[in-house]
Design goal:
The protein is 34% helix and 18% strand. The protein is an alpha/beta fold and 644 residues long. It folds into 3 domains: 8-293 and 304-417, Aldolase class I (TIM Barrel); 420-464, no CATH class; 513-552 and 557-644, RNA polymerase II/Efflux pump adaptor protein, barrel-sandwich hybrid domain (OB fold (Dihydrolipoamide Acetyltransferase, E2P), Beta Barrel), CATH 2.40.50.100. A 9-stranded parallel sheet has the order 2-3-4-5-6-7-8-1-9. Helix 20 packs across helix 21. 51% of the residues are buried.
Length: 644
């Protein structure tokens, strides 16, 4: 049993204001709603917080309509001086999801320090030592504390090659042997899937090679209900500091609550360096600030299946929200079941952003389109070596497929040198729109740039032009547009779809079912909510049944079409999104008056951070284009109308 005869104080970083927000809400929270709770936490004596980076850099301007640098300033002002505020960065990706050049990472470090950051926790999802060394220099040069991370996870298959204690210790030892300053080291498990024994052996091995002045931290998530056990094992192995949170932004996909860890350490000789009795005050302040938000049960509950699909808590939340919004949450279990294959085939890189997103999107594509029929650009580039060297050798057949589909050759050079310049196009876009080319503005646009994405859809440019889209996970009663529906619990992998519900005469509430309507060659699937007309509801004047499109149950969404009132005697066909929820239109490939053929790609929409083709279900003439790139459309809203 863990015990310290001499006693030891364990340092705590409170993660509620970054990882907690990301894990539970995908980072989509207004800064003003959590600043009062931060002030309460500071008053309670806490002096170390995570407050930025990760999804809490991009989410403010992608989904909340806020400048992330202004959000950081607000939190620094609330924390005051003498408080450590920490960010999370992703090596060659920085605070983005793609590779950045060294000039962009240097600008990033300069801005993070300017806007209140004192500590930068930097990890590489490949655990590529060259990447870790190269990206540490901008952090050190900017005057921040450099915390070196080794990224950990439990493999969803049996292997003794990587993700062992010896492997993790070797990564850190090789970085320490290089010419780079390391101020602290962190064992970072974003998915909460590393077993306690490996945590203990890794901590013990790292403490054996670290100079005594370099503290060792540990980070994990409670997604598989193992976080407290893993922290206990790490502490026994020599860990000096751990990451904890507080309800309602604790446990589940987030970190354990401070009170759980305090209780676990009772009578062990170890103690936390913060006062657990103050947690209720912080919890009350968070409850008040987040009263409008809709807490999704998937992100709050433990899920033992995560040991077979190592997804970080910070990615599960956003992906669940995106699937619900797109109307395809029923495929969640199928995507999870595909994970072991995409992990092993890719080369076993660590499931932490952006690697986790690459795994997720490839598993999603495999389920939606057929295995390896569509290679996600990020996954393909990672397999081909453009993010660094994967820990294990990727499947040669997958490498071949990725190379063919993406038109890229395998790469074994420096990812930083191969990264495209994002700063110059950002400056040019700002100038073209008459916007100031400040460092902050340039970086906002550059860090939202994605290969192949049109500049007018760039979230940084949208924010600066006053066109930011706000998509907060608020309760249905809250006055906010673009709400994602609350997500049901995920289906078990490969589970059969439930039988349609029936509406009994005695039913007292609405019942939802599906119906398929076929007219000629056109087929539409609808979700129908039936309102009972008996009793009190009938007396009150029950509404007519509400009808909305549902997600197709086939492996790949099919083009949707529905007859529209004919003009001039012909038949009108409305082409709509292949998804059952709300998606963004990213490209229109035809113009009014164009002739299109059946199966021709006429538009593209974005769902799950990936583009999907919209094909015409019939031949005809484009009579009306109803939307433009950047518009959001529901499944029932026409994108294009054909006449035939």
């Amino acid at each position: 049993m863990i015990h310290s005869a001499n006693g030891k104080q364990i340092r705590v970083m409170l993660t509620a204001f970054r990882d907690g927000l990301q894990s539970v809400f995908g980072g989509k929270v207004r800064t003003a709603d959590v600043v009062p709770a931060l002030e309460v936490a500071v008053a309670a004596g806490i002096r170390h917080f995570e407050f930025g980076g990760g999804a809490r850099y991009q989410a403010p301007y992608f989904y909340v309509g806020e400048d992330p640098f202004e959000a950081m300033d607000q939190m620094r002002d609330a924390a005051g001086e003498g408080v450590d505020l920490q960010i999370l960065t992703r090596s060659v990706s920085g605070v983005t999801l793609t590779t950045q050049g060294l000039p962009a990472l240097e600008l990033q470090a300069k801005l993070m320090r300017k806007h209140g950051t004192t500590i930068d926790r930097n990890f590489d999802f490949m655990n590529d030592v060259d990447n870790l060394v190269a990206t540490a220099k901008p952090i050190v040069d900017a005057g921040m504390h450099h915390q070196l991370c080794v990224a950990m996870m439990g493999l969803p298959y049996v292997s003794d090659k990587t993700h062992t204690a010896a492997y993790y210790v070797d990564v850190v030892e090789r970085v320490l042997a290089r010419d780079v300053r390391v101020d602290s080291v962190c064992m970072k498990d974003a998915s909460g899937t590393t077993d306690p024994r490996t945590c203990y052996e890794t901590a013990r091995g790292l403490k054996a090679i670290l100079p005594p002045e370099i503290p060792l931290w540990q980070h994990t998530h409670d997604t598989a209900s193992m976080a407290v056990a893993c922290y206990m094992a790490g502490i026994e192995g020599g860990v000096d500091g751990i990451d904890l949170s507080v309800r309602p932004l604790a446990s589940g996909t987030s970190q354990p609550d401070v009170r759980s860890m305090w209780h676990a350490l009772k009578n062990t000789g170890y103690a936390l360096d913060i006062d657990h009795t103050k947690m209720n005050d912080i919890e009350v302040a968070l409850d008040e600030g987040l009263a409008e938000y809709d807490f999704n049960p998937i992100t709050l509950a433990a899920d033992a299946r995560v040991v077979n699909f190592p997804m970080p808590g910070g990615a599960i939340g956003p992906n669940v929200h995106m699937m619900a919004k797109a109307g395809i949450l029923d495929r969640y279990g199928d995507v999870l079941a595909e994970f072991p294959l995409v992990v092993e085939s890719g080369g076993a890189w660590t499931s932490v952003t952006p690697g986790s997103q690459q795994y997720w999107l490839q598993a999603f594509n495999n389920v939606l389109h057929g295995r390896w029929k569509r290679i996600d650009a990020g996954y393909g580039r990672a397999v081909l070596g453009y993010f660094g060297r994967p820990p294990e050798t990727p499947d040669p057949e997958v490498v071949k497929i990725a190379s063919e589909q993406l038109g890229l050759e395998p790469f074994d050079g420096d990812p930083l040198a191969a990264a495209k310049d994002t700063l110059t196009p950002a400056r040019e876009a700002l100038e073209a729109n008459g916007l100031p080319t400040t460092d902050e503005n340039v970086f906002l646009v550059a860090s939202a740039s994605v290969p192949g994405k049109r500049m007018e859809l760039n979230e940084g440019l949208r924010l600066l032009l006053g066109q930011a889209r706000v998509n907060l996970p608020l309760k249905p009663s809250a006055p906010k547009p673009d709400l994602a529906p609350a997500a049901p619990a995920p289906a078990a992998p490969h589970a059969s779809p439930p039988a349609p519900p029936t509406l009994s005469p005695a039913s007292s509430g609405p019942v939802t079912t599906t119906a398929t309507v076929v007219e000629g060659s056109s087929k539409r699937v609808f979700r129908i909510t039936l309102e009972p007309v008996a009793g009190a509801r009938a007396a009150a004047g029950a509404a007519q049944p509400a009808v909305e499109p549902a997600a197709a149950t086939a492996a790949e969404p099919e083009p949707q079409a529905q007859p529209a009132p004919a003009q001039g005697g012909g038949e009108s066909i409305a082409i709509t999104s292949p998804f059952g929820g709300t998606v963004e239109v990213v490209e229109i490939k035809v113009s009014e008056g164009d002739r299109v053929e059946q199966g021709q790609v006429v538009a593209a929409v974005e769902a799950m951070k990936a583009e999907h083709e919209v094909r015409s279900p019939a031949a005809g003439i484009v009579s009306k284009v109803h939307v433009k790139p950047g518009d959001e459309v529901a499944a029932s809203e026409p994108i294009i109308t054909l006449e035939r």
